[in-house]
Write a structure and sequence with these properties.
By secondary structure, this protein is α+β, with helices and mostly antiparallel strands. Helices cover about 50% and strands about 5% of the residues. It is built from 22 helices and eight strands. The strands form three sheets. The protein has a four-stranded mixed beta sheet with strand order 6-5-7-8. Strands 1-2 form a two-stranded antiparallel sheet. A hairpin with a 6-residue loop joins strand 1 and strand 2. The termini are far apart. About 50% of the residues are buried.
């Protein structure tokens, strides 16, 4: 008897194959998003903990004429290149983010898209314009983000990179020339594949895997796409199969749903990390702390108590007490981030490293903090018309005076685009200057000045501009 194919597989496949993206806003944001993600990756090359993981899996096994990795001279098979690109983009927790019932970073999919586009172009199998690449990115964002709206994978202990794997698998199979059946087959394998637990994102096991897990997921999506193109079979009811399907085994028998039709909602509403690399539920709290530093930096030793009002996910994910063991632990601690910003008036990636963390004032301030959920913040967070990520920080002094700062929408929010995009451009320029020089830098800085010129580039031209010869 022929099995009925799960609706999720059909809807994603039909979207990838047939939906035309008509939103100018989505394309413009995708353009900034790609360049921002590349800038984040270039910044990550300053950190040896990241660069030691790059290159081919097996030493000395580069692929001449293979996919390139921005900021490096590596030429790799597309699966390895996808891991490398995804790893550097995600390493510093500085690329875009998406918050709903599930959270994540849709630009994690760029690793697979860029690697495969460059590989196919260099092998003369297919040529992609950067406008076409942006279309693929919009669709990957949409798949990951809409699945995240009403499906909470973290509540059953699964890491959000499962959605990177699903989204990358769908768009990359399309890139390889996959037909409807092949995309469905690939997607079904993505859902039944081995999935990451969130062990490495939470105390007492918080570790560096959270910085390369997305690279791993996007590279796995590439692998599954190539398998489907070889003719590997699929599993029509991979999600819904009684007892053995994804929903029964891993999702507490809940049904995976698409909360709204797939188009370009996610890219239009994506959240940018602009001013500092902080887990996004803390972004507005850090902005509050920076404002408080400006006015009260001379009185920081007089602080008696600090109350942080946040949303429910902020409490669940980043409310951490006790020792913090490494940078991966610190950049997901709300109290640490607020303390660093109160002390310095800023928050930089370097502030998560051991040297800065040794400042005893950080833990003194953390001990004075109380984190409280504000029910209105939680309600607004889930409202599709608001999607706020609100925080407030209130400091109390020994003379019984106090000051409270509240921010509902961090600077990377859609409601602050006019303010945010110029700062995003500055962020990109700063990151590029950390690694490139001379004529190559001049060309790269020019990329973010003209959307029209950018979309006329080929993927080969773009990857040539960003890689080291």
């Amino acid at each position: 008897m022929e099995q009925k194919t799960d609706d999720i597989l059909i809807q994603i496949t039909d979207y990838v194959l047939n939906t035309e993206i008509k939103s100018d806003e989505a394309y413009t944001i995708a353009y900034y998003n790609l360049l921002d993600a590349i800038g984040c990756g270039i910044f990550a090359l300053q950190f040896p903990a990241c660069t030691k993981l790059l290159g081919p899996v097996v030493p000395e096994s580069q692929l001449k004429g293979g996919a390139r990795v921005p900021g490096t001279s590596y030429e790799l098979d597309p699966v390895s290149a996808a891991f490398n690109i995804g790893c550097i983009i995600r390493w510093l927790d500085y690329n875009d983010t998406w918050l709903a019932e599930e959270w994540g970073h849709p630009s994690d999919n760029f690793g697979g898209i860029l690697a495969v586009a460059d590989y196919l172009s260099r092998k003369k199998q297919c040529s992609f314009s950067m406008k076409e690449v942006l279309t693929l990115m919009i669709k990957a964002h949409e798949i990951q983000g809409i699945l995240a709206l009403e499906n909470s994978f973290n509540k059953v202990g699964l890491d959000h990179v499962i959605l990177v794997k699903v989204a990358t698998t769908a768009v990359v199979t399309k890139m390889l020339g996959g037909n409807r059946e092949q995309i469905i087959n690939a997607l079904s394998n993505a859902w039944i594949d081995g999935h990451s637990l969130r062990t490495y994102r939470h105390a007492p096991n918080t570790g560096s895997r959270k910085s390369w897990a997305a690279g791993d997921a996007t590279s796995r999506g590439v692998y599954l796409a190539f398998m489907a193109m070889k003719g590997e079979m699929g599993y029509p009811n991979a999600l819904s199969a009684p007892k053995w399907g994804f929903e029964d085994v891993l999702f507490n028998k809940n049904k995976v749903v698409l909360a709204r039709p797939l188009n370009c909602y996610v890219m239009e509403n994506i959240l940018f990390k602009i001013s500092f690399p902080a887990e996004f539920h803390a972004q507005s709290a850090v902005e509050c702390a920076i404002k408080l530093h400006k006015d009260f930096k001379e009185r920081i030793h007089e602080i008696e108590k600090i109350i942080i009002h946040t949303q429910e996910p902020g409490v669940r994910i980043i409310d951490k007490k006790g020792p913090l063991n490494n940078p991966a632990d610190r950049d997901h601690c709300l109290q640490y981030m607020v303390a660093a910003a109160l002390i310095t008036g800023d928050l930089k990636a370097e502030y998560y490293e051991d040297d800065f963390a040794s400042n005893p004032l950080i833990d003194k301030l953390r001990e004075k903090m109380e984190v409280i959920e504000d029910k209105e913040y939680s309600k607004s967070y889930l409202d599709p018309n608001e999607r706020s990520i609100a925080n407030a920080v209130q400091i109390f002094f020994s003379d019984e005076s106090s000051e409270k700062i509240e921010i509902h929408y961090p600077i990377g929010h859609r409601k602050r685009r006019d303010e945010g995009i110029p700062e995003l451009i500055k962020k990109y320029e700063v990151n590029m200057k950390k690694h490139y020089s001379d004529e190559q830098l001049k060309r790269l800085l020019g990329l973010i000045q003209s959307y029209n010129d950018f979309t006329k580039l080929s993927i080969d031209e773009f990857m040539t501009m960003t890689s080291i010869q």
